[in-house]
Inverse folding.
């Protein structure tokens, strides 16, 4: 593997979290006359993230990125594959050892209201996990909660309020404070700002970046918003129908992407420069995303790929090193592939 591609495959430094060949299939029970089927939500996803790094995972709705988030934090049990946190395989741990390691791995969900129990005060929402993990003695807890609220830009007066008394942005700050209370080393951010107003989105993103600089936290940042991903991430993994199709450093992906699906996805991302936006042509893909119950044969993207050839429906491409990245396409790396999008 070329140096650039191997760097991109294995995170910038020693990985704090590694996902190896993760598979998640959901069985669907058949009826009287129909056989049982399987939803292929994830099929062989491998990635890693280093301390203080942000790895973005992007793709259309239904590509498997939220299932990946839920498997990583063990809200879902993977069908097969391994998740290593600080070298320990958390897919085979249970009980207390799992709880202790899980403390270092937190999640911030898309909808802060749904993830915060509305009957609990903010002090309990942040303080109770600390109690469960023995992270603060009883007499210290309120002080720690106040300090965490301050870290995320909220005053101590929020302690005795309830989630419904807060705005969306304030609730997401509470959700982040709650994750921080566990002193995490990795936070999975599952569309953390997509339910918020645009003006509030920037505040929450800046907060996440500041916390990363302050505490060296690694983020796995799940998003469908490429303009955001370009701004916040160090590397980006593009997913299609349960598989990674391209994994690259974000600054390299901003210059050029090599998989035809990434090309279409990036062509649709908003750009700030009006001249660049006017010069750019958006690629509109034909058809819908195929059903994950019966993914297409060969290359899963072949039913929508503008550059498909006969071989694509027969042979499944592997994720392989091409130049400075990993790409899952038979033709990536060939001169002039994929063709530049005409203006
Ligand atoms: Fe398109 Fe074929 Fe490449 Fe798949 S393998 S992305 S169908 S050109």
């Amino acid at each position: 593997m070329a140096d650039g591609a191997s760097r991109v495959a294995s995170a910038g430094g020693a990985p704090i979290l590694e996902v190896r060949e993760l598979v998640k299939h959901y069985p669907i029970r058949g009826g009287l006359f129909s056989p049982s089927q399987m939803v292929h939500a994830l099929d062989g996803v491998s990635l890693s993230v280093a301390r203080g790094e942000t790895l973005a995972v992007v793709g259309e709705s239904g590509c498997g990125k939220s299932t990946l988030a839920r498997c990583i934090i063990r809200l879902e049990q993977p069908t097969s594959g391994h998740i290593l946190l600080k070298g320990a395989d958390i897919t085979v741990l249970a009980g207390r050892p799992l709880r202790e390691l899980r403390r270092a791995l937190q999640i911030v969900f898309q909808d802060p209201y749904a993830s915060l129990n509305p009957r609990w005060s903010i002090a309990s929402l942040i303080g109770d996990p600390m109690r469960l993990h023995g992270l603060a003695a009883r007499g210290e807890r309120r002080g720690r909660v106040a300090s965490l609220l301050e870290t995320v830009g909220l005053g101590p007066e929020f302690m005795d309020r309830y989630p419904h008394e807060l705005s969306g942005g304030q609730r997401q700050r509470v959700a982040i404070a709650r994750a921080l209370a566990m002193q995490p080393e990795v936070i999975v951010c599952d569309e953390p700002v997509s339910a918020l107003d645009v003006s509030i989105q920037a505040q929450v993103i800046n907060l996440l970046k500041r916390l990363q600089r302050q505490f060296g936290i690694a983020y796995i940042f799940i998003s469908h918003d490429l303009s955001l991903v370009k701004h916040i991430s160090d590397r980006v993994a593009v997913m299609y129908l349960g598989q990674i199709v391209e994994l690259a450093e974000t600054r390299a992906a901003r210059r050029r992407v090599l998989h035809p699906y990434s090309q279409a996805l990036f062509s649709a991302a908003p750009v700030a420069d009006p001249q660049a936006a006017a010069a750019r042509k958006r690629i509109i893909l034909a058809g819908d995303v195929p059903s994950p119950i019966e993914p297409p044969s060969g290359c899963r993207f072949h039913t929508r790929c503008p550059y498909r050839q006969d071989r694509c429906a027969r042979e499944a491409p592997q994720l392989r090193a091409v130049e400075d990245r990993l790409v899952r396409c038979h033709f990536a790396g060939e001169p002039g592939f994929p063709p530049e999008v005409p203006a």
Residues 198-215 form the longest helix (18 residues).
